[in-house]
Specification:
Layout (H helix, E strand, L loop, with lengths): L2 E10 L2 E11 L3 E6 L5 H8 L7 E6 L2 E2 L4 H6 L1 E4 L12 H11 L4 H14 L15 H13 L5 E5 L7 H13 L3 E5 L11 E6 L2 E6 L1 H13 L1
Parallel strand pairs: 3-8, 3-9, 6-7, 7-8
Antiparallel strand pairs: 1-2, 1-4, 4-5, 9-10
Pfam family, one: ABC_tran
EC number: 3.6.3.-
Enzyme class: hydrolase
Length: 226
C-alpha cells in the first residue's frame, strides 16, 4: 500500500510541529525514530487521520485522509503507546468484538472472527480475562488483535516495546516480524527496527534521514549525541 505526503504540514497554535513533508512510503516494514518532540508521532498520526494536515495532504492507498477520512482510516490501525488506553470493554473477547459490532456485522461472523484472531495470536486462553489483569506483553498482543480483527492493511505501533521486560519484548518483536500486514513502528528501541526495510529519522519537525536501518540509525545517534 502506498502512503503519500504532499507538502504535509502541521501547526499547533502557531508552532510548527511538522514542516512541509514530501514523502512516499510503500515498504512492508518502516521504522520511525527521533528525539521526543521531533515530529515522528505527529507524522505517523497523519496517516490514519488522528492528526489533520494544516496544509498539504496525505493519501493512503489513493484515499485522502481528510476528504476520504472514513475510507482512509479503515485502511489503517493504530496502537497507542499505552495500548490499555484504547481498550473499551473490560473483558478481552468483548473488547475485540466491539469494533466488529460497530461495523454492523452479524453475531455469527463477529464470534467467528473474534475466535480466529484470538487463535492467530495464541491468546484464546485470555478470552475471558479482564483487560486490566493482562501483563504488558499480553496487553500489547490484545491491542494488536483488537485492531487487526477489523482487517486494516496497515498497522502503526507507537513504542510497542516500551516498558516491556526482555521476554515480552522478544515476543512483540517476533509478532511484528510475522505480521503479513504492512507495519510502521515509532520507537526508541533501535534493535527492534534493525531488520526493517526503511527507517525515517525526524528532528525538530523535519525529516532528517531516510535510508536503510544501519545508515538511518547512525544518523539518529549523531543527532542524539549533540
Amino acid at each position: 500500500m502506498d502512503i503519500v505526503f504532499t507538502a504535509a504540514t502541521v501547526r499547533y497554535a502557531g508552532r510548527v510541529a511538522l514542516h512541509p513533508l514530501d514523502l512516499a512510503l510503500s515498504e512492508r516494514r518502516i521504522g520511525i525514530v527521533g528525539l521526543n518532540g521531533s515530529g515522528k508521532t505527529t507524522m505517523a498520526r497523519l496517516i490514519n487521520g488522528l492528526v489533520k494536515p494544516t496544509e498539504g495532504s496525505v493519501t493512503v492507498d489513493g484515499l485522502d485522509t481528510v476528504a476520504d477520512e472514513k475510507a482512509a482510516r479503515g485502511k489503517t490501525g493504530f496502537i497507542f503507546q499505552n495500548p490499555q488506553h484504547q481498550m473499551i470493554l473490560p473483558i478481552l473477547a468483548e473488547d475485540i468484538a466491539f469494533g466488529l459490532k460497530n461495523r454492523g456485522l452479524a453475531k455469527a461472523e463477529i464470534a467467528e472472527r473474534t475466535e480466529a484472531i484470538l487463535s492467530r495470536f495464541n491468546i484464546a486462553y485470555l478470552a475471558r480475562r479482564r483487560v486490566h489483569e493482562l501483563s504488558g506483553g499480553e496487553t500489547q498482543l490484545a491491542a494488536i488483535a483488537s485492531v487487526l480483527v477489523t482487517g486494516p492493511d496497515l498497522l502503526i505501533l507507537d513504542e510497542p516495546t516500551n516498558q516491556l521486560d526482555l521476554k515480552n519484548r522478544a515476543l512483540i518483536e517476533r509478532t511484528v516480524a510475522s505480521l503479513p500486514e504492512q507495519v510502521i513502528v515509532i520507537t526508541h528501541d533501535l534493535a527492534l527496527i534493525e531488520g526493517f526495510d526503511r527507517v525515517l529519522v525526524f528532528h525538530e519537525g523535519r525529516l532528517a534521514a531516510d535510508s536503510r536501518p544501519a545508515e538511518a540509525i547512525g544518523a539518529y545517534r549523531k543527532i542524539a549525541a549533540c
